[in-house]
Amino acid sequence: MKHWVTFVGYLEGFSFLILMFYAMPMKYIGGEPEMVSLFGSIHGGLFVVYVGLLLLGVGKHWTRTALIHGFIAAIVPAGPFL
Fold first, then answer.
1. Count of domains observed in the chain
2. Average pLDDT over residues 3-12
3. How far apart, in whole angstroms, are the C-alpha atoms of residue 5 and residue 22?
4. Is-contact 53 80, C-beta < 8 A?
5. What is the pLDDT of residues 29-61, one digit of tens each?
């Protein structure tokens, strides 16, 4: 299951980068706010899935350190890439 956490973490990290470096400029420079709604929803959904997988890790008896690192990575921008 840890490979799923890693995979979803990378997807969530990439969605954050797309949101910040594509969708936000499209909104404020290009005048198209729809991109922020689209990629913001995708990023939010992936974030919820990532945190849900971490919570499932509690039931799998993951170490406390691994869970703390996972939750910190969820909060810090680009954390899943570290």
1. 1
2. 92
3. 25
4. no
5. 999 999 999 999 999 999 999 999 999 988 888
Q: Rounded CA gap, 19 and 40, in Å?
A: 6
SS (H, E, C) the chain: CHHHHHHHHHHHHHHHHHHHHHHHHHHHCCCCCHHHHHHHHHHHHHHHHHHHHHHHHHHCCCCHHHHHHHHHHHHCCCHHHC
- Within a 10 A sphere around the Cβ of 26, how many other Cβ atoms? 16
CA distance 1 to 63: 14
In the chain the beta strands, taken as DSSP E runs, fall at: none
Give the separation between CA 27 and CA 82, rounded to whole angstroms.
Answer: 29
Q: Considering just the CA atoms, what is the radius of gyration of the chain in Å?
A: 14
Residue 54 belongs to domain spanning:
2-81
Whether pLDDT at 77 is above 90: no
